[in-house]
Specification:
Blueprint lengths: L37 H23 L14 H8 L4 H25 L13 H20 L3 H21 L46 H6 L50 H23 L1 H7 L7 E7 L5 H18 L8 E7 L8 E3 L2 H9 L13 H11 L5 E6 L9 H11 L2 E8 L20 H14 L3 E5 L3 H4 L1 H6 L4 E9 L5 E7 L4 E8 L4 E5 L5 E3 L4 E2 L2 E6 L2 E6 L6 E8 L4 E8 L3 E9 L7 E3 L10 E8 L4 E10 L6 E2 L1 E6 L2 E6 L7 E10 L6 E7 L9 E5 L10 E10 L4 E9 L4 E3 L3 E4 L4 E9 L10 E8 L6 E8 L1
Parallel strand pairs: 1-2, 1-4, 4-5, 5-6
Antiparallel strand pairs: 2-3, 7-16, 8-15, 9-14, 9-16, 10-11, 10-15, 12-13, 13-14, 17-18, 17-19, 19-23, 20-21, 20-24, 22-23, 24-25, 26-27, 27-31, 28-30, 28-32, 29-31, 32-33
């Protein structure tokens, strides 16, 4: 982020509530025609290049390769071919990385909306090529330092600019059917450009622009691109325009445009040809990166070798000696057991915290390096009783890949409880699950109390409830145990280190009566675990065949039950027992119930929303969706060559008032789900579908749930990025808060995960249905190392804390 190589790759993950200001290949979804989007182009290129790399590696090892490398590739078929026997483990992680890359690509249309070089508009060929070259260099540098998250975001950004060249220039019109390789070779000259005074276009004839390039431009194969402006009709005399409704220059002679963004564009008759060359050009860029990184790291970059992540956040204050010993033991056990297997974690993350120190963050793909760092941890100091647990968790959430399982070890209340809303925002944004391993220090330490004073339990009910709330919102758990029984509880960490975990059932209840739950178990799920947390609630599990086992029976026909602290863990015996299972739970206190298993079939989703007037397309919404309004989800379902989504529903955590969505297949593994109105309060997503079985004529029915709790908001927060962040310099981030309900003073909170200096207004005042603006100023210290990534979260909370929303900005 802090060098000329990587500065262009600043990525803003924000709530996209304003229209794009330029036109390109459609970002994500083509509605009503056969146009290809940036999503299509990027995904096809990654799939093809990944297939080529896996094919070459298989051939070199004397293995057979039969999968055709064409547009029919999916994450599942590629995973199965690249790693036979591990497709169920790799497909969901592979697809999640591809999604991150193409969402980063689509974000350029907002981040750099009016930047001509980012879209090769206005004949900015040298500047556009510099951006592509800088992007490729940023990817290679990030891979070299093992920062694959930054590399993937930079890759998506560079791909957007490269792909736009083929839509916005006349490269296709002058007869080319192959990529312009000079764009990824900055040391080669840019020849045969139309000069600044050279006319390039003539007026379109009526609505037909297919013949508006000047004949001599075509004959001499002079390279040009269209001019674009949202506000001014002025362009150099005789120059081509981009064209389209938003382009005011296209109304001035020569009128019309030359873009090929979709089949209805000015040169839409060439759209599919331009898109195909853009796919090949993206593959060429990927090959250039592969030649530098090597095959193994290239496959890690695109997510083909990504497995689970082992992420620990550890309190290192005085009473935590036993906990640290157990964190070492369980991590070493997982590493030693899974090293060299397909289930070996692909990344290790460690965040120690004390008082007041946080970190340093350790992120590595080398298990031995992780071992060295966690082995150095020791318990000391701490000052007063509360600790900086949420600050440590915040750092882990910004470092870990999306959908990670994060484990926090502590025996103390949170000193930084004011970070609760920020942590909640990031768990919603990243869909990572947080499990707290909470130990009672009353029997093991007298830290901070004088040797003659009696020890006390440092976690009061309110303190523990904070951790429970965060765990439940993220889809994790709050495990409350004594220090002596912690080794029995950490088995849950070993469970979660298994790749390709899916959620079959998850619920939180404050009961008034016994309640029944059900989950559908299909034959493609294995290693099923049932977890119930609470004050030892009584439960009975029923199989589809009518067999039953109560909580009182540790060993029974349906599985083995382990009890430790507030956790009951049951390893379920699912042999020949597919179908609908039921659980009856009777409790006098709040409890959670969760059923997880391992399966290749899972779903990934992101809320998207209307782009606006340029294309009527959709783009990423990286915050809470709008309450009382319709909403759309872009969903990918992995794990089968042939599957159909039959139902998607948004189900309130309370269990009543589910809202069903309309499902539209987009081709391959992708679906668009639209709901008319979001549920009130927290909700999760339920998906039902069917897939063909390998050894049966009837389809296999499957049911999956999201883990993270989501919620809608009547507050909207948007932000924009002015420039890039440099060491010792300040950057301003303007933001806007809007609401359609409560007037009054809205509290503003701004956090960043690096502790950089930040200034912002503490509140803004809104009228009902109004909006207010503010500015955040962020300053990085002069000694900030190149490549440092920063995540900035801006929150707005309504009067009385009745509602809130956020926007997350990542500088990479």
């Amino acid at each position: 982020m802090f060098s000329s190589v990587t500065a262009h790759a600043s990525l803003l993950w924000l709530t996209l509530l304003f229209c794009p200001l330029t036109e390109t290949f459609k970002p994500l979804i083509s509605r009503g025609d056969d146009s290809l989007t940036h999503r299509d182009i990027t995904q096809r290129a990654i799939y093809r290049k990944t297939g080529q790399v896996c094919h070459a590696m298989a051939t070199a090892q004397g293995q057979n390769w039969t999968l055709p490398i064409d547009d029919n590739l999916t994450a599942y078929t590629l995973s199965r071919a690249c790693s036979p026997g591990a497709s169920s483990l790799l497909a969901p992680a592979f697809q999640s990385v591809v999604i991150l890359i193409y969402l980063s690509n689509a974000a350029v249309d907002v981040l750099a909306a009016l930047s001509a070089p980012h879209h090769f508009d206005d004949e900015t060929f040298a500047e556009g090529r510099d951006l592509v070259a800088q992007g490729a260099a940023a990817v290679k540098a990030a891979v070299n330092r093992r920062d694959f998250l930054s590399a993937r975001i930079s890759l998506g950004f560079a791909c957007h600019t490269l792909q736009d060249f083929y839509s916005h220039s006349n490269w296709i019109e002058i007869g080319n059917t192959v990529p312009f390789s000079t764009l990824i070779r900055p040391d080669t000259p840019l020849d045969n450009l139309a000069g600044p005074d050279r006319a390039t276009c003539k007026n379109c004839k009526g609505g037909d622009c297919s013949d508006n390039l000047l004949p001599e431009i075509l004959q001499e194969e002079k390279l040009t691109s269209g001019y674009f402006s949202l506000v001014s009709p002025v362009k150099p005399p005789g120059k081509c325009s981009h064209g389209g409704f938003s382009d005011r220059t296209s109304k001035q002679d020569p009128v019309g445009g030359i873009n090929k963004d979709d089949t209805t564009a000015s040169h839409g008759h060439l759209h599919l040809r331009a898109a195909q060359v853009a796919i090949n050009a993206t593959m060429e860029l990927l090959e250039d990166i592969r030649l530098t990184t090597g095959d193994k790291d290239f496959l890690r970059l695109v997510g083909m070798s990504q497995s689970s992540v082992l992420c620990f956040v550890v309190d290192t204050t005085g009473s935590m000696s036993d906990d640290i010993t157990e964190a070492k033991r369980v991590s070493f056990s997982i590493i030693d057991l899974k090293r060299g297997t397909q289930e070996e974690p692909s990344e290790y993350i460690l965040v120690p915290f004390n008082d007041p120190d946080i970190g340093p963050l350790i992120r590595t793909s080398d298990a031995d390096i992780f071992k060295q760092h966690i082995n150095k941890l020791s318990a000391s100091g701490g000052g007063d009783i509360p600790e900086m647990s949420l600050s440590g968790l915040l750092l882990a959430l910004t470092a870990a890949p999306a959908s990670s399982d994060i484990f926090v070890f502590t025996d103390a209340p949170a000193k930084d409880a004011e970070l609760k809303s920020t942590v909640t925002a990031l768990t919603e944004s990243t869909k990572s699950k947080v499990t707290f391993m909470l130990t009672d220090s009353s029997r093991s330490a007298r830290r901070r109390q004088g040797s003659g004073s009696p020890p006390s339990n440092r976690l009061a009910e309110a303190d523990a409830q904070l951790y429970r709330d965060l765990a439940q919102a993220s889809g994790g758990q709050a495990i409350e145990v004594s220090k002596s029984s912690l080794p029995q509880a950490t088995v849950i960490i070993e469970d979660s280190s298994t790749p390709a975990l899916v959620t079959l059932l998850q619920a939180v209840r404050t009961p008034v009566r016994a309640e029944n739950f059900s989950f559908l178990l299909d034959e493609l799920v294995s290693n099923v675990m049932l977890y119930i947390t609470g004050s030892s609630p009584a439960f009975t599990l029923y199989s589809p065949t009518g067999e039953a086992q109560s909580h009182e029976l540790s060993e029974g026909p349906l599985g083995t039950i382990q009890r430790v602290g507030n956790l009951q863990r049951m390893q379920v015996n699912t042999h020949n027992r597919t179908g609908l299972w039921e659980i009856t739970i009777n409790s006098t206190a709040t409890f959670t119930v969760k059923v997880r298993g391992q399966s290749s079939i899972n779903f990934l989703f992101n809320f998207v929303e209307a782009f606006g007037r340029a294309h009527g397309d959709l783009n990423l919404k990286q915050s809470r969706p709008s309450a009382g309004k319709s909403a759309s989800l872009l969903m990918s379902v992995t794990g089968s060559e042939s599957l159909r989504v039959t139902e998607v529903a948004l189900v309130p955590v309370s269990g009543s008032g589910a809202v069903k969505g309309t499902v539209e297949a987009l081709g391959g593994e992708d679906f668009l789900v639209t709901v008319d109105e979001l549920p009130v309060g927290n909700f999760i997503i339920h998906l039902r579908g069917e897939t063909s079985g390998a050894s049966r004529s009837s389809p296999i029915l499957f049911h999956r749930q999201s883990s993270t709790q989501l919620r809608a908001s009547r507050v909207a927060v948007t932000a924009s990025l002015n420039g890039t962040l440099e060491p010792g310099a300040a950057i301003t981030v303007p933001f806007t808060v809007e609401t359609n309900t409560t007037a009054g003073s809205y509290t503003i909170r701004v956090r960043n995960d690096r502790g950089f200096s930040v200034s912002f207004p503490s509140s803004v005042t809104l009228e009902a249905g109004g909006r207010a603006e503010g500015t955040v100023t962020l300053t990085a210290p002069p000694d900030t190392p190149s490549g440092t990534d920063v995540t900035l979260t801006i929150e707005a909370e309504a009067p009385g804390a009745t509602d809130s929303n956020y926007v997350v900005i990542s500088f990479v």
